[in-house]
Specification:
Blueprint lengths: L5 E5 L5 H12 L9 H9 L3 E8 L2 E10 L3 E9 L8 H15 L4 E7 L3 H9 L3 E10 L3 E9 L1 H5 L2
Parallel strand pairs: 4-5
Antiparallel strand pairs: 1-2, 2-3, 3-4, 5-7, 6-7
Helix pairs in contact: 1-2
The structure holds coenzyme A (COA).
The site of coenzyme A has 20 residues, from helix 1, strand 4, helix 3 and helix 4.
Amino acid sequence: MLVDETHIEFAKLSDANEIGIMSKNDIERGLGWRYTPESVVKLIHDSEKNVVVARVASKLVGFGIMTYHEDQANLDLLAVKRNYQRMKIGTQIVQWLEKVAITAGVFNIFVQVRVSNTGAVAFYKRLGFLVLEEKKGYYRGIEAGIILAKSLRRMFNAQ
Ligand SMILES: CC(C)(COP(=O)(O)OP(=O)(O)OC[C@H]1O[C@@H](n2cnc3c(N)ncnc32)[C@H](O)[C@@H]1OP(=O)(O)O)[C@@H](O)C(=O)NCCC(=O)NCCS
């Protein structure tokens, strides 16, 4: 599949169900289900958040959720469907959200990853994130979290 076939856009309310189910199966597994379709609908309506999806043709193949604060942002959730992984779709979603962050004057993006998710840690490092610390019991007391951050200052200056 060509990367060019991927299209990133704001999520529609009708995407909430699929996003919630992907979160349950691919991100929150074993932790309980917080990002239900109902809560995703609220996030889509939340002005501090951007919920975006990646589509190939009209099919949803990935999503990302970013919260924007005054001068920093947090990448809350990100997932790409298994059959579409390692095709740079995750990279495109993060880059799309980073561009919005830069436009909004955000200088640092934070992200948290389950300690067992070594693939995601490798992915974020590849995108320029640095590991800040590991927090014990970060995920509902069940699993440690790795906290990563990326400075957008260089990209901001290059605009
Ligand atoms: C993490 C995730 C979003 C990455 O999305 P993706 O579209 O597959 O990633 P990309 O194709 O853009 O990867 C870019 C680079 O990151 C690195 N990378 C990505 N996944 C990796 C993995 N599982 N192991 C090691 N490196 C990885 C590679 O360097 C890759 O480049 P390459 O394929 O040329 O080697 C995806 O694996 C996923 O949805 N995982 C399940 C949910 C999850 O863990 N979400 C993150 C926590 S919220």
